[in-house]
Every structure is written in C-alpha cells, then in structure tokens.
C-alpha cells in the first residue's frame, strides 16, 4: 500500500476523500445492521481535492493483487484505519526526499521530538478515527462467524508429528516416502571444505537397559552394497526385545552381539586364552556392554537367538536352553568352512554358556565340556551376494520358527535381491523412528524436510519397489 502526499506551502497534508463499502458477503441480516453502511468521508485541511499529477499517474506501477486471505475485507478496513491515522503525520522538509512514503523508518530519527512530527488532531479527525475503529471491529466480528467454515491450519510440533507413527501397526504404518526420506537423512555422509565429515554425529539414543547410542557412521553402513556395522544389529536386537509380542516376551530372546564381538576381538582364532590379554574370557571384562543384556529374559526364555560376526561375516546361533541344543543358520555356508571356524564356534558356544550363567541360568555344559559345545549347521537358502549376511540374520530374528527345522533343514521362500536391498531402507526407519529412540522427534522432523524427486509413472507402479541402490545418499 502506498500513501501519496502532496506538498503544500503550509506543509499540511492534503487528504483525498475515501469511500468504503462493506461487501454483501460480510453484511448481516439483523435489524441493527440491515441499514446500508453510510459512505465515510475524511476531510483534511483543504476542501478541494487536488488532482493526481499526470507524471505520477504515468510512472506509478500497478501492484499485483494481494494473496488471498481468509477475511480480506476486515484486513483492508484495518489498513484504511492505519491510513487515516497517518493523516496526522507531517513530514520534515527535506528537498532530497520523495513526496511519498515507503513506510521505512530511519533509526537516526527515532528520538526526534513529537512536536516536530505530529500536530494536534482536529475534532473532525478524531471523530473519523472513532468511526473507523467501530467499522473495523464490526467487520472483524462478522468475519469471525465463518471460522468453523475456514479453519486455520495449525503448525505441527515435533511431538505432534511423531504421534502419527504411534499406531498398532507400528513400522508398517509409516508411509513409504517417509521411510525413503529417513533413509536418505540417516545414511548421508557430508564433508565440509576443510575435509571434516559428519560421520561421528550422534543420530539415535535407544533407551532399554541403558542408553545405546548410534552415530551416523553406523547408519551409513546401511547404504547399498555395504557391510553392516555390529551396532545396527545390536539396535535391532534391543528393539525386538521390547516388542509387545509373545514371541519376544515369552519365547525368544535376541542377544545383542556386542560382548561376543568384543570377545572375538580378544580371541581372534577362538583361543580360550587371549593372545592379547593372556586371560580367559570373563563376562565382567566388558562392563560397558553388560547393561544392555536383559538378564531375566536371557535366563528364562526357552530360545536364545544370538547373532555372531567374524571377519565381516554374520551368522545366527539358535540356542534351545531347555534341551541344551545349539544350531547355526549361516546365510552363506551349509557347514563350517574351515577348522578355524570350528574353533571359533566352540569358543562362541563357551561365551554364550558363560553369559547365560552370569544372568542366573544354567550353563549349556558343565565343567570342561563347556569348552566343547557343538552346534550343527542348518541347511537354509541364504544370501546371493557377499555383503547381505547381516540383513538375513536380522530378518531371521523375526521370522525363524525353531520347531520348523526338520532333519537339519529349514524350508522357506527366500527373498529376491530387490527385496533384500529394500530391507536396508526399512531398517533405517525402524531404528530412527523407534519409540525407544529419544531423538525420534528430531529424526521425523529432519526426514520430513527431505525433498524427493517426483517419481515417474513407472515408479508409481505397484510392481516397482524402491531399494537402497535406487537412492542417492552422497
């Protein structure tokens, strides 16, 4: 809005008569308001209305229409009131200033005396201001009646956004595009001009038996064709153990692999005496990871599913604590591939027995036989690549039914490679959107800010599925 003033010898402001009409949509049908709104005229110091200079008419640009508002007429009335109040303003004489105001304030003049910038309001002007005030209030009151028809959109907070995902269906209720955004945000590594990366940025804090923290480097291992970090597998174990399902509350306990991984680091070839510490394995030697073990479930559940990783390869132990029987599901091998692997299996069996005993359960074997625990391999269809073993192990934690192992075989419909790739996208959102994650609201907020490219008609086909290889995270 631009207010045009005409410079007069008396330095007074010439006021142009203004007409204001209430649109029919804002009129009410009550008796008090049924009369037409009178024309409102504001008079200034001069009775004659000066014509707009020809040069100004030619050079003044036409402004585009203002954006549509919910109640534009009420707001226009408020603007009119502001114009009327501006009539009492007398600009300083400055030959270098234009004859119109752009509404900009010079901070150097803020402390100027009011006597230099204002003159006394005439009774007529005061009366007109009162009329305008009354008119604005009437319009605003009339406009408020339509609030139910045109509700304003409220801005969501992080907590309100996260509440959308708190559904009985859990992770399956999260929209696919949101999973893709979460995957991009969680796995993207960035490098600044100085060569520093964000790989050590804290991304997730799972609250279970303790605070389990994941950094971006861990989540980045979910990128296509990458070997998955042990912390991702541990996070999935912690999340599954908290699921309110009979399978995990009464039957199967998923043992996080942290202590086993640390033990294999100290006993790299399955030696019972560590070449690094010259000591035997003791659970107490790894206090940082003890807190993440649920001792009650470890000592009471009939089955323990224990992921193991050595030299970049993952496999899964199935331990029947009732029958003291152990089996191995390896996504790549149908039997121990080497004598070293046999030694590693004996050592890990010993570690599991020690962990169960530490939690208050009975050992898998007694005495020296505890170091001779045997585990048979189950023949099962597995990975098709050299880097998807962790995906299979994590999915088997949820799917494998021990009673369906018949004669050393487990029959099931293996996944296609496209499905395996897609699980990498799924696991990022399962971890970051987990209710156990104290940074969940941030994950949802940051993921929502990611903009995906508009998919083609091919991508919208129900036969097309987005997987980790289709998403650029660089």
UniProtKB/TrEMBL annotation:
Native organism: Arachis hypogaea (Peanut)
Biased composition (Polar residues): 50-60, 102-115
The protein, known as: Ubiquitin-like protease family profile domain-containing protein
Protease found in the keyword field: yes
Domain Ubiquitin-like protease family profile: 212-400
Keyword terms: Hydrolase, Protease
Entries under InterPro entries matching the protein: Papain-like_cys_pep_sf, Peptidase_C48_C
GO molecular function, one term: cysteine-type peptidase activity
């Amino acid at each position: 809005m631009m207010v045009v003033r005409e410079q007069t010898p008396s330095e007074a402001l010439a006021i142009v008569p203004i007409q204001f009409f209430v649109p029919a949509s804002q009129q009410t049908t009550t008796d008090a308001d049924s009369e037409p709104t009178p024309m409102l005229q504001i008079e200034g110091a001069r009775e004659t209305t000066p014509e707009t200079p020809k040069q100004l008419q030619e050079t003044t640009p036409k402004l585009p229409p203002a954006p549509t508002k919910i109640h534009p007429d009420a707001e226009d009335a408020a603007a009119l009131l502001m114009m009327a109040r501006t009539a009492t303003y007398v600009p300083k004489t400055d030959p270098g200033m234009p004859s119109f105001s752009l509404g900009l304030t010079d901070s150097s003049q803020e402390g100027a005396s009011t006597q230099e910038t204002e003159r006394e309001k005439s009774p007529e002007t005061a009366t007109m201001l009162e009329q305008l005030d009354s008119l604005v209030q009437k319009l605003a009151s009339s406009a408020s009646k339509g609030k139910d028809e045109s509700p304003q959109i409220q801005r969501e907070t992080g907590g309100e956004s996260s509440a959308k995902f708190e559904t009985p269906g859990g992770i399956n209720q999260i929209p696919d595009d949101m999973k893709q955004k979460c995957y991009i945000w969680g796995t993207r590594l960035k490098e600044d001009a100085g060569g520093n990366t964000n790989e050590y940025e804290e991304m997730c804090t799972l609250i279970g038996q303790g605070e389990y923290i994941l950094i971006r480097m861990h989540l980045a291992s979910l990128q296509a064709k990458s070997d998955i970090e042990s912390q991702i597998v541990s996070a999935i174990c912690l999340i599954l153990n908290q699921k309110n399902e009979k399978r995990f509350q009464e039957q199967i306990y998923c043992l996080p692999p942290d202590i086993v991984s640390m033990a294999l680091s100290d006993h790299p070839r399955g030696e019972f005496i560590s070449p690094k510490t010259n000591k035997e394995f003791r659970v107490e030697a790894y206090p940082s990871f003890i807190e993440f073990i649920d001792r009650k479930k470890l000592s009471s559940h009939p089955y323990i599913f224990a992921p193991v990783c050595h030299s970049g390869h993952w496999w899964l132990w199935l331990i029947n604590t009732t029958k003291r029987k152990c089996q191995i599901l390896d996504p790549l091998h149908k039997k121990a591939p080497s004598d070293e692997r046999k030694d590693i299996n004996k050592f890990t069996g010993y570690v599991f027995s020690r962990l169960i005993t530490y939690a208050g359960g009975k050992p898998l074997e007694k005495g020296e036989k505890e170091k001779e625990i045997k585990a048979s391999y189950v023949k099962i269809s597995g990975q098709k690549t050299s880097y998807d073993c962790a995906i299979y192990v994590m999915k088997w934690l949820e799917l494998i039914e021990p009673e369906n192992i018949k004669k050393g075989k487990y029959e099931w419909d293996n996944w296609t490679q496209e499905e395996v790739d897609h699980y990498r996208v799924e696991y990022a959102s399962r971890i970051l959107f987990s209710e156990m994650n104290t940074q969940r609201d941030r994950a949802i907020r940051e993921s929502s800010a990611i903009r995906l490219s508009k998919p083609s008609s091919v991508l919208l086909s129900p036969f097309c599925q987005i997987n980790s290889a289709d998403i650029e995270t660089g």
